[in-house]
UniProtKB/TrEMBL annotation, chains A, B:
It comes from Acidisoma cellulosilyticum. Keywords: DNA-binding, Transcription, Transcription regulation. This is Crp/Fnr family transcriptional regulator. InterPro entries: cNMP-bd_dom, cNMP-bd_dom_sf, Env_Response_Regulators, HTH_CRP, RmlC-like_jellyroll, Tscrpt_reg_HTH_Crp-type_CS, WH-like_DNA-bd_sf, WH_DNA-bd_sf. SUPFAM superfamilies: cAMP-binding domain-like, Winged helix' DNA-binding domain. Residues 19-88 form the Cyclic nucleotide-binding domain. GO terms for molecular function: DNA binding; DNA-binding transcription factor activity. Coiled coil: none annotated. Residues 150-224 form the HTH crp-type domain.
Length: 234, 234
DNA sequence: CGCACACTTGAACCCCCTCAACCCAAGTGG
DNA sequence: CCACTTGGGTTGAGGGGGTTCAAGTGTGCG
């Protein structure tokens, strides 16, 4: 009998760097029992802003974008969530943002009452969630600085450097970055237009600061310089 | 013997709508013993970005601004914290932002270890902090939408409407808003310049949507219209 | 009064956006 | 196999919203 059928958590790719790491191996069965795995196709929306917030999610594969919309269609991407990322923290009864898979992805779904039980039984989990929330808050403040005060060049440089830092720690032949998102999604994340993102990429490339082997990949050639631009120097 | 000397918390203006409300009256003495009250003059900085994060703060009077700086002096205000607001949540060992009193203010200071004790003894407090963090996260996402995708008019309208909604619930003779911050601070909060903020105020005034009895006060004359602009309609 | 500081207003400029054309790769179907 | 479509990306030209620079207007306070 395949063990992983009954305990998907122990073999989960996100196990270790997700909030789940707050739970001991021996209690993993309990966790697996409360979670429901869901596969998402590229482009699939699984959280809609304003909908009643009945569930929490943990991304275990792929990448999802979190975003908010204005009535006329203007979109602000508030973040990209990869494997290990926890979603849906909210006091309110409705989601404050939408979430869409930007590539083939997988999420782990917890119902609100079930998570509440878990939190009660595993105090370490609550502490871990608080830590997570704090980290997101810090990231959000950094993004506000970017959106409110940085130039287009600085925004794109910040994005690339941040991707490098928070990128998957393993598999880094040189300074290559995977970009599962489109230029449009990067633009909506940085408060720019597609054209400006594309032009800035092209300029960095012409200046030999980056290389663009494909649309979904960027190689950092001059990291110190990019970091400097990102920080607002020069 | 004056009771409030030994129990400043029970008479605190922020008692009730701060995180402290998670603690029963009978345990307030304990809270008071761990807190240190500090008065701040206008313009006084009490948290410096990058400094080691040894303390947490609770604003109990006045208003403070939270902000981040770029090396060349560009400033992004990430929020204004009034009475009841909790500051300093961070996993990291250093503060991710600076904080400065923009008017005569008072804060309640907790050392990190002491707060940790409190959290241990009052689980409700930890839950309350998590709620607080979630609310701030939602606000931060809303601000990202503003900074990344809204026009100057929409930003200023959003600011005014938000001030009205989160304003001190009592003492609201009509739809008057107190603005303890300068135009420059509003500009740094909205990702604009002083001039644009001033011009937008003037336009709203000329269009009879607001009145400006003084530099530190605005009266909303057409709230539905302002709300519409803030939401991105028209 | 007169200085300081915050705010307002005007004019010119510029960075980024808008609009438009084009490129390229991957389907798709006759 | 090739014509056609579709989606994402690039590049160019022109325009506009907000910034920059600069001058002027209160207003509080010594």
């Amino acid at each position: 009998m395949p063990q992983h059928e009954h305990d998907p958590c122990s073999s989960c790719a996100a196990r270790g760097y997700s909030v789940c790491s707050a739970i001991d191996d021996k209690d993993l069965g309990r966790l697996a029992a409360t979670a429901v795995v869901r596969d998402l196709a590229k482009g699939e929306t699984f959280i809609e802003e304003g909908d009643s917030a009945s569930d929490f999610f943990n991304v275990t594969r792929g990448t999802v974008k979190l975003y908010k919309l204005l009535p006329d269609g203007r979109q602000q991407v508030t973040g990209f969530a990869g494997a290990g990322h926890f979603l849906g923290l909210a006091v309110s009864n409705t989601y404050a943002f939408s979430a869409e898979a930007i590539e083939q992805s997988r999420v782990c779904r917890f119902s609100r009452p079930k998570l509440r039980e878990l939190l009660h039984d595993f105090p370490a989990l609550e502490e871990r969630l608080l830590q997570t929330a704090c980290n997101e808050l810090v990231a959000a403040q950094e993004q506000m600085l970017l959106l409110g005060r940085k130039t287009a060049r600085e925004r794109v440089a910040s994005f690339l450097v941040a991707r490098l830092e928070t990128g998957i720690p393993c598999v880094n032949p040189s300074d290559a970055i995977a970009l599962p998102m489109t230029r449009g999604e990067i633009a909506d994340y940085l408060g720019l237009t597609i054209e400006t993102v594309s032009r800035t990429f092209s300029r960095f490339k012409a200046e030999k600061r980056i290389a663009i082997p494909s649309n979904t990949e960027v190689v950092i050639l001059d990291r110190p310089w990019l970091s400097g631009i990102a920080a607002g120097l020069q």
